[in-house]
Amino acid sequence: MRNRELSSPMAVLPYASSPFVFLTLFLAVQVAHSQSFIGVNYGQVADNLPPPSATAKLLQSTSIQKVRLYGSDPAIIKALENTGIGIVIGASNGVIPPLASDPNYAKSWINSNVIPFYPASKIILITVGNEVLTFGERSLMDQLLPAIQNIQNALNDASLGGKIKVSTVHAMAVLTQSEPPSSGSFDPSTSDLMKGLLGFNNATGSPFTINPYPYFAYRGDPRPETLAFCLFQPNGGRFDPNTKIKYMNMFDAQVDAIRSALNSMGFKDVEIVVAETGWPYKGDPNEVGASVENAKAYNGNLIAHLRSMVGTPLMPGKSVDTYLFALYDEDLKSGPSSERAFGLFKTDLTMTYDVGLSKNRQDPSMPKTPVIPAPVNPSPTPVNPSPTPVNPSPTLANPSPGSKKAVWCVPKVGVSGAQLQANLDYACGHGIDCSPIQPGGACFDPNTLACHAAYAMNLYYQTAGRNPWNCDFSQTATLSSNNPSYNKCVYPGGCT
Fold first, then answer.
1. CA distance 249 to 223
2. Both 274 and 176 in a single domain?
3. One of 179, 271, 276, 330 is an active-site residue; which one?
4. For 18, 74, 95, 98, which has the most beta carbons within 10 A of its beta carbon?
5. pLDDT per position as a tens digit, 51-95
6. 191 with 89, same domain?
7. How many C-beta atoms surround the C-beta of residue 419 within 10 A?
8. Burial category of 167 from C-beta neighbours within 10 Å (exposed 0-12, middle 13-18, buried 19 and up)
9. In the predicted structure, residue 182 carries a pLDDT above the cut 50
10. Is 135:174 a contact under the CB 8 Å cutoff?
11. Which residue stretches does the UniProt record annotate as biased composition, category Pro residues (predicted)?
């Protein structure tokens, strides 16, 4: 059992006369200064983000030591060179099939997205796919491990196999049992796939990356005591009868449920990394708990918990690498209002609220108790609520008919003609109606590759589900709120 007293620095002050304790305190200060366990997610589903150079300077003014990208934007990777900041880059769900089927495609991906930047840009991990085992089709699930293996082989061929790790990101819904944490177990319907992925993690020393969100657990059980448990605030705790551990916060309980599941499958040495966790600072009227006070309490208390180095009950004495969601709001994301309200910083580079990330000030006061009255729900919440229409990852929300802002998928500036042609061929080859860009069609003129590719890429995005990864095209496309329609050429636009 661990509580707030055990992690308090005041607990060691009476023994400061000991040289050993002086050394311990010195090392603790060094750890707190480097704070390599604190990372942040840098999403780009927005049209108002500051330039990468400004973001790099912002990050250097904080104690954030790692940044996770959902793609591999070269401008961002380049901007982070020589900063010492670790970079996680991603291969989207959409490129899993070619990565799995063609080793040369994987080599090309590494040659384009890693080789030109490494080691000046400190790429530390490549994530292949996002939450595929819980929100993907079975065919995509089956291709996940081969895609990961081909990326690993491509790294090995480039003599980078021991320097850059490869993994995939999982939602908490990979667990079918999580309460109490000691009973954590993976979904048996995908156990064969999970064993293969964990075998790869174990063999290569790569982490098992997971997206725990206490916020969604609270939404499933909106009682004041549950909110306090989720926000690291004083509460009665939850007792695990199997281990006799009393958990004092939801984050530890969720992470330890994953630890138990890994242990039960025989993978006790596979490291856990928290790829995403966060709390929205505002939401729609029906989104209970989304407030500045609660977001500040969750993120601020989580950071303090990580800095204490107390660890979790099943993994004591070491803080799990944790990537906070998110650096900025993403104004083009679909779903409820909360999806666009996770940013720790505003796009003018000021703090949304202070959680102590600044190098100059790391001890802001945190709300001590929940500030939003919640309706009583007598049923206890599991650590991981069963999958419902609520998506446990803010990066995979479904479009909401109640939102109004329309977005379009367009090529990035400077994309080569060869890449535009490849994008055009891909989009038109996947079931969309390309007749408007054929001779006589409303969008044939101007008869240019750029215009035709733009129309086809947007149509593919609109018809494939309007998910961020549907507007990927090997990192050559972006979402825009500017309507590219002209004359009689009307581009379909989806409301987010």
1. 14
2. yes
3. 276
4. 95
5. 999 999 999 999 999 999 999 999 999 999 999 999 999 999 989
6. yes
7. 18
8. buried
9. yes
10. no
11. 370-392
Whether 372 has a pLDDT exceeding 70, the answer reads no
Whole-number average pLDDT of the chain: 85
Q: Choose, from 131, 179, 330, 339, the residue flagged as catalytic.
A: 131
Distance (Å, rounded) from C-alpha 301 to C-alpha 369? 12
Q: Domain range holding 426? A: 408-480
Residue 64 included in any domain? yes
Distance of alpha carbon 232 from alpha carbon 300, whole angstroms: 9
**Tokens representing 477?**
């496309």
Q: Name the helix (H) or strand (E) containing 277.
A: strand 272-277
- From 319, 345, 371, the end of a domain falls on 345
How many angstroms separate the CA atoms of 2 and 394, rounded? 30
The two tokens of residue 303 are 């950071």
Mean pLDDT of 103-107: 97
What's the mean pLDDT in 235-252? 96
Sequence-separated (6 or more) residues with CB below 8 Å from residue 412: 475, 476, 477, 478
- pLDDT tens, 137-168? 899 999 999 999 999 999 999 999 999 999 99
Do residues 133 and 144 make contact, with C-beta atoms less than 8 angstroms apart?
yes
Side-chain half-sphere of 307: how many Cα atoms within 13 Å?
22
Q: Using omega within 30 degrees of 0 as the cis cutoff, is the peptide bond preceding 446 cis?
A: yes
Q: Does 271 qualify as catalytic in the annotation?
A: no
Structure tokens given for 474: 């090997």
CATH number assigned to the domain comprising residue 46: 3.20.20.80
Q: What are phi and psi of 9, to 5 degrees?
A: -65, -20
pLDDT at residue 426, rounded to an integer: 82
Instruction: Indicate whether 495 belongs to any domain.
Output: no
326 upstream amide cis, omega within 30 of 0: yes
